[in-house]
Predict the 3D structure of the following.
Amino acid sequence: MSELQLSDVRKSYGNFEVIKGVDLDIKTGEFVVFVGPSGCGKSTLLRMIAGLEEITSGDLTIDDERMNDVDPSKRGIAMVFQSYALYPHMTVRENMGFALRFAGVPKAEIEQRVGEAAIILELGPLLDRKPKQLSGGQRQRVAIGRAIVRHPKIFLFDEPLSNLDAELRVHMRIEIARLHKKLATTIVYVTHDQVEAMTLADKIVVMRNGVVEQVGSPLDLYDDPANLFVAGFIGSPKMNFLKGIVDAGGTQVRLPDFGNATIPVAIKGATPGSSVTIGIRPEHFGDSGSASLDLTIDMLEHLGGETFAYARHGDGELIIIETKNGRGLKSGDSIAARFDPAAVLVFDADGRRLR
Amino acid sequence: MNNGSARIATAIVTYGFVGLMAFLSIFPFVWMLLGATNSSIDIIKGKMLPGSALATNIATFFTQVNAPLVFWNSAKIAILATALTLAVSSLAGYGFEMFRSRHRDRIYSALLLTMMIPFAALMIPLFIMMGKAGLINTHLAVVLPTIGSAFIVFYFRQCTKAFPSELRDAAKVDGLKEWQIFLYIYVPVMRSTYAAAFIIVFMTAWNNYLWPLIVLQSNETKTITLVVSSLASAYYPDYGVVMVGTILATLPTLAVFFFMQRQFVQGMLGSVK
């Protein structure tokens, strides 16, 4: 049974459509991440699920019950906001118990639930403090605690880690993953950070301009993107894109910007002479492989464990190469960046994947 | 001129100007305090030293004026006007900021335009309205026209812009209705804004003179400002007594400002923490 289902869900502000027909099934216990660039509609879609934005058309069902016009508090959801949205005049304890108080839950039960959440999130010593007396990470834990005490069917997270520093973000990411494992509740999580998406999600929903571009597991999206946008968005550093032309036999792609180097790739249905884009992930370059590009290193980033080399052919576009053996490289070095043609992805002129 | 001399010259000019401004602000207050201790003749002569007539002036004031009644009248009007103005104007400010509508900005502009209408132009229509409602010579006639204050609505709306919209969203998810969000979240979060507005409205209501002068016609309904003014406009005004009345009339507003000045400053700077 699908717990949360979106069927042709749309949202318009006047004549301007921001969500353009989303279909999605989210199963019980799944950790689903909406990811996409700013303005793609991911937060709007989350707010529509929460009931904070009206749904212009389409159906939202939770446990087979249509929820389009149901009050947010009666949808069985709890939401964690980017700015934490803790009530500043209440203590941590009051913040966490506030929704239950309004739902008419007996005081003893509120105490019990708040106590349980405080143990899970290690908030015990902070219960009588006000939000302004807490650090960013502690506030975020309180915001999560406020959601937990409601025992929701679905947790909604709207970019919850954006306001934290890099170190705390990594820590909280692990906390959220641990929490999901422990509670086994459905989580819908919005982020623009694809690293968060890759590390947390069971299923990633990549969005652009109000449209779902692709849905799949993190590694499926990484290995098998449906289009140029997904290929470029998932993965850090980004996939390299090279402009090419399909040769007469349709079995090779010629790269005019790289000294007419040819890559042997079989592309079904490609018209000879047509323009394509080939994608190669930075880590797919190495010392072996039947294809190669002649490049000159422009700049190097040594991260200790690995090195990112930014190289180009002549005055062409920068290519990022990730290597474990890059400590001996220098700017200005000429290299033959080798790769296995089987690792290459090919996209047509409209950005669709050719397989 | 070297740097040190320039700094000293700047300091002299700055402190001189600030000192002059402070003197101009404090002088009427000091004069009022000194005047209360002197007889009317000494005040007219311009005596600027403490005198020995304070007890006499106080006794005369309390003989001539039914102080408990006029203070009660002023307090009743000021407290009622403040409470109603804050309630109505904060609701309006919240509504103007939170609810989107095609006509919102037009209505808001029209409201702001009403600030440009001088009170003198409104007095006669208001008096006729109050007369028709049978409210002449009642305190309600003083209170009612002050409630819909365009300035306080404007003030609340501007301050509401700093109210985090995510708090409202969180409250909705927590199951609160709009009026509950206003009451349980907005009001406590915006308490500094309310404190600043309280001081402004309370002082305006307490010091209100022209409109009460028109609608309050019997001695039983008059406020402290009207009574002090009537003392000053007698054929032979006793300025010492007038000064005592003025001090007593000033005390509540001073107390309100003294106790709420921190919140007032916070409210003026932006109250959401």
